[in-house]
Every structure is written in C-alpha cells, then in structure tokens.
Design goal:
about 350 residues; alpha/beta; Rossmann fold; Dehydroquinate synthase-like, alpha domain; 2 domains; 7-stranded mixed sheet; about 20% strand; binds nicotinamide-adenine-dinucleotide; binds zinc ion
Length: about 350
Amino acid sequence: MKTLEVRLPGKEYRIEIGSGILETAGETVRSVARGKKAAVITDSNVDSIYGGRVRKSLKEAGFDCFTVVVSPGEGSKSMEVYSEVCEKLLDGGLTRKDIIVALGGGVVGDLAGFAAATVLRGVDFVQIPTTLLSQVDSSVGGKVAVNLNAGKNLAGAFHQPKAVVIDTDCLDTLPDRVFSDGMAEVIKYGAIEDADLFRRLSALGGRTGIMSEIEDVVYTCVDIKRRIVEGDEKDEGGRMVLNFGHTLGHAYEKSGGYSRYTHGEAVAAGMVKIAKIGEEIGITRKGCSDEIRDLIRTYGLPDSIEIGLEEYSQAVGIDKKAEGREINLIFIEDIGKAVIRKMDTLRLIGLIRGVEA
Ligand code: NAD
Ligand code: ZN
C-alpha cells in the first residue's frame, strides 16, 4: 500500500492506495471517526459487488453501520435524490459525531459528499472511490455537488474528506467504457504535468498493460491532483490547469445531450483539438496533438467529435449578438507543461474553424 497526505490548513487527510485494501477500510474509517455509527452511501451496482465487504470491515472495526443505496447514474446527482438521502441518514439515526462513507464512482462521491457537507450542518466523510475517474480525480480535492436544472454541479460545497481509501482491485469489474472514461483524465495528467507518465502510458499500450502497474499509475495521478489542490483549494487559480481539454469537451458533452459521449470521451477529443489550436498559434510544440491523439486511441477513446461551429459558440457562451468575451484556456507548451492563456471566445471559434478547414 502507498499513502499520500493532503495538507490543507486545518484539514489534513490521508489517501491510501493499494490492492485489496477494501478489507481494512473499516480500520481506516475508525482512525478518523469520532462516533460509533457509519452510514454507507452507495449505488446499487457497487453495493452488489462491494457493499458486503465494506460493511463487514466496518463492523469488524466496531461500527454500527447502515446503508443508503441510490440508483446508478448521473440522475442520482439531483436535489430530489439528495433530499431522500438526507432523510434516510436521519432515519438511520445519524448524529453530528458520526461518519458517512461514500462508496462508489464520482456520482456517489459528489452526492454523498454534498450530503455530508450539509446534513446537520456538516458531518465527516470518507471517500472509497471505485471507478478509475473517481480514484484519480473526483475523490480528492473536496469539491462536492449535485446538479440543478440550470446546469451541472451548481449546488455544491467544498468539503474535504477525512480520508480516501483507493482499492485498485475495484477497477477489475469496471466495464471497458467506464474504464476508458477515467483514462482520459489519466492521460490529461500526463499531458499537463508529467511527460514521464505520458510516455509510460504509451508504453503500457492499453487496459491490460496498465493494470500491471495500476497502483503506481493511480498514485502518480493522485499525487499531481493533491499538489494542484494544495496550491488552490477553492479553485481560484492554479487548479484551472485541470481543465485542459474541458472547454471544448463541454461543447461535445452538451451537443450529445450529456448522454451520447462520456465525460472522458468528450475531454479526450477536446485535448486533441486544443493541442492542434495551440500548435497553430505557436504555443504548443508541433507534434504534440498527434502524440495525444495516438495515446487516446490506445485507450479506446475518440480523438475527435464532429459538431457545428454554432454548437461550439453556444457552449463557450457566445450570444445572439455575437459578442465575444475573454475566457481562460488551458494549453500545453509541450507534453507535461500546461499554461493558462486568456483568449476572446470569437477568436477561439475562428481558430476552431481554421484547424477544421
Ligand atoms: P459513476 O459514479 O456514474 O460510475 C459509472 C458507472 O460505474 C456506474 O454505473 C456505477 O454504478 C458503476 N461502477 C462504479 N464502480 C464500479 C466498479 N468498481 N465495478 C463496476 N461498476 C462500477 O461515474 P464516474 O465516472 O465515476 O463519476 C462521474 C461523476 O463524477 C460526474 O457526476 C462528475 O461531475 C463527477 N466528477 C466530480 C469531480 C470532483 O472534483 N468532485 C471531478 C470529476 C468528475
Ligand atoms: Zn474531467
């Protein structure tokens, strides 16, 4: 098992990464808990595979535990499900001293984390992420939220977990598409911060290869996220580099009605496109977009998604009067070296037209 410490003023926490560590998750929760009760929040898929193991471990560690199960999928990140979950937590007898255990992917982590941030004016929680995306990204950093009709993640909080338990064995049961989805964020870390990681991913050649070194790869990604979060807990500056590929990615997600493409598929195509634009305007070393494209293909992700200029314009907020505005865009100068540049949205659309011509 490998461990990392997240150091935020007054909110230090430990991240454990290893194979088979679900079995001892109870002890980890015990080491940070103040009360006797643990409420596990999970979705029905994860509950059926891992729920029993986690409950057993919590009971062995002396917890009186109960479980709140939600339906799998983004639909559970809603105000309705959030309020049902809070009611069930109180029905189960949760008090302010007790602890919530978020067991599942990013949906469960965000929902359970937001419930933890708000129920009884805030209780402690532990993240046990079970998807690749949640292990390398969403479980670390304390952003928790549910969606509103007005948009994704619009009701939320910053609420850091007390510990994060990452059992990489959980990845064995992920469907290929969910695994690839998380790989887009892994590739992103390489592209923005770590050229060695990028080349290693390329050498590992796909899901089978990467699983032979998964503990180390997840550790490397979480360490990058930890460093960036420590520098900018509330997302006011440096954390922005994590948005590499995401501005155009959001346009693809939106055009697909948030269901046709996964987040990772959209981000993958977004990274290739923004790298091409960067090459075009002389920020990015020529050849980077091809290298990203090749790696993306290796992990079963799409290297481009076709949408109209109108859809790009809408996604970056260009209104009917066609007035542009300055946005922060993340480019790379080379693999492993991200930079933040301000750009007018109208210029961005012009450049997209240019690289597509
Ligand atoms: P998810 O939680 O919906 O999980 C994907 C699917 O995999 C679900 O059907 C789930 O039941 C299933 N699953 C989970 N673990 C499994 C396992 N070990 N074996 C088999 N099946 C398993 O999706 P996700 O991609 O993990 O998370 C997406 C969410 O994360 C989005 O809502 C996004 O907004 C959020 N997110 C949050 C942050 C943050 O910083 N808070 C960052 C990135 C993404
Ligand atoms: Zn992302």
